[in-house]
Amino acid sequence: QPVPVVTIDGPSGVGKGTTSALLAARLGWHLLDSGAIYRSLALKVMNDDLDPANEAQLAEAAKALRLSFQADGQHARILLDGQQVNDQLRSEACGDMASQVAPIAAVRQALLQRQKAFQQPPGLVADGRDMGTVVFKSAPLKVFLTANAEERAKRRHKQLKEKGVDVKIRDLLRDIEARDHRDSTRKVAPLVPAMDAHVIDTSDLSIEEVLAQIMNLVGQHV
Ligand code: C5P
Question: What CA–CA distance (Å, rounded) separates 152 from 166?
């Protein structure tokens, strides 16, 4: 029996991260935050002043990435070149750079095995853009979360405000729409629901309601 995987894909700001972490905790399964891997490469690009247009150099950097995840209660400590980088990875600059390096096929290929290695007993919740379409194609349960862009901008605004960061909703909305566009129109592994994905529109749902729906699907499909 293969180790079961639940894939949670969707655009930025849809609550995938929170939902996936809670789901993994509830099931007692491992968690793959694949965005953190792309963000780590992005941070490496920014720190080492690599050229985001040099595809061969980026693929090399992706292969050589010294990245590890250490369990730490609910969340993982993310170490890049031995340094904890959790806070740096969350910055808008890092997310933005991640979505610039993510379209490169050789980069995605170089990061594939690293992601597959997370499939360990008793199970895995995999959060990203192409978990159900590329990385874990035969997962028994694939979920695709959506929410309208205004709602996602509002949620992001609230999150940032709690952290003391003051940004305009209008600017967040513009960034979200730009990132959505880049992620869904790229040639390689674009952001689209897998054919067999269960699409949940979370615009009017609380995290608990979303979780309840997914737990229900887990009961049926896993
Ligand atoms: O999910 P998160 O916002 O951390 O992802 C940052 C960026 O990394 C996304 O906008 C996307 O371009 C890229 N990404 C990806 N494939 C994944 C996860 C993230 O291309 N599986």
Answer: 16
* DSSP SS3 for 167: coil
Model pLDDT for residues 92-116, shown as the tens digit of each residue: 899 889 989 999 999 999 999 999 9
Cα(175)–Cα(186) distance, rounded to whole angstroms? 17
Residue nearest to atom 18 of ligand 1 (CA): 35
ipTM of the complex: 0.97
Instruction: Verify whether ligand 1 is closer than 6 Å to residue 10 (CB atom).
Output: no
Query: Does the CB atom of residue 102 touch ligand 1 within 6 A?
Result: yes
Give the integer Cα–Cα distance in Å for 12 and 2: 29
The two tokens of residue 97 are 């750079």
For residues 79 and 31, what is the distance between their CA atoms, to the nearest angstrom? 16
**Contact of 210 with 145, CB cutoff 8 Å:** yes
Quick check: 12 and 176 in contact, CB under 8 A? yes
Enter the pTM of the model. Answer: 0.93
What is the radius of gyration, based on Cα positions, of the chain?
17
Main-chain phi, psi angles of 194, to 5 degrees: -60, 155
On whether 7 is known to bind a ligand per the annotation, the reply is no
Contact assessment for residue 148 and residue 13, using Cβ atoms and an 8 Å cutoff? no
Q: Is 4 annotated as a binding residue?
A: no
